[in-house]
């Protein structure tokens, strides 16, 4: 994967893993809900370590082939990979199945073969756990951080595709930008609470 700069977690090894592995990056985005984004994006690295301890690697087809209870245990082992480890394990398995069956086990094929931003957005929204905003944010992350820029990607990712903003994980390239994103999200949350 081509990257500009990717800083999604303070764990350097986890960031490097996300840069190298498209499926790990996709899983990190899936897990980025109801927990801090740094924890969500570190989780695929921890999951891979847990799978390596059992003689397996984290790849879509392997994850999709595991019994549901085994995946739930991998997600639930301390420290749990998510606030809701069992439900997220099921969603991760469902995403892995789609990547394995529809994209020949290559998560990057989801975006590398998309002829337009609109098609890519549609593909992302078809994944379990990827609603409208999450799909747009991930599309923006692909465009801004990995230079995946099919025609119309910024429009499809709107408003998260805008240059020079700090509104989502797509804008995180350093500890400083991560803090700006955190402040932006806190301001939005405070505004909604009024």
Architecture overview:
This protein has 194 residues and is mainly alpha-helical. The protein has one domain. It contains 11 helices and no strands. The chain has helices spanning 12-20, 22-31, 37-52, 60-65, 68-76, 85-102, 108-112, 117-125, 132-146, 153-157, 175-193. It is globular, with a radius of gyration of 16 Å. The relative contact order is 0.13.
Estimate the helix proportion, in percent. 55-70%
Mean pLDDT: 94
Order of helices and strands: HHHHHHHHHHH
- Overall 3D shape: globular
Spatial gap, N to C terminus: 42 Å
Please work out how many helical segments DSSP would assign: 11
- As for the number of domains, it is 1
Q: Quick one: biggest sheet? A: none
Cα radius of gyration in angstroms: 16 Å
Find the structural class using helix and strand composition: mainly alpha
Which characteristics define this entry?
single chain, mainly alpha, 11 helices
Short overview:
By secondary structure, the protein is mainly α. Helix content is about 60%, strand content about 0%. The longest helix is centred in the C-terminal third of the chain and has 19 residues.
List the helices and strands and how they pair.
Elements (H helix, E strand, L loop, with lengths): L11 H9 L1 H10 L5 H16 L7 H6 L2 H9 L8 H18 L5 H5 L4 H9 L6 H15 L6 H5 L17 H19 L1
């Amino acid at each position: 994967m081509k990257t500009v700069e990717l800083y999604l977690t303070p764990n350097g090894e986890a960031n490097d893993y996300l840069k190298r592995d498209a499926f790990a990056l996709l899983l990190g985005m899936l897990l980025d809900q109801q927990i801090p984004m740094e924890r969500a994006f570190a989780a695929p690295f921890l999951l891979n370590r847990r799978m390596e301890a059992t003689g397996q690697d984290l790849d879509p087809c392997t994850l999709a082939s595991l019994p549901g209870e085994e995946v739930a245990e991998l997600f639930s082992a301390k420290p749990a990979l998510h606030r809701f480890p069992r439900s997220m394990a099921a969603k991760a398995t469902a995403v892995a199945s789609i990547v394995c069956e529809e994209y020949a086990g290559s998560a990057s094929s989801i975006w590398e073969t998309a002829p337009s931003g609109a098609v890519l957005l549609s593909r992302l929204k078809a994944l379990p756990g990827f609603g409208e905003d999450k799909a747009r944010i991930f599309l923006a992350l692909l465009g801004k951080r990995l230079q995946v820029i099919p025609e119309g990607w910024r429009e499809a990712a709107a408003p998260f595709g805008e240059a020079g903003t700090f509104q989502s994980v797509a804008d995180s390239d350093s500890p400083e930008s991560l803090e700006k994103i955190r402040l932006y999200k806190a301001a939005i949350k405070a505004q909604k609470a009024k």
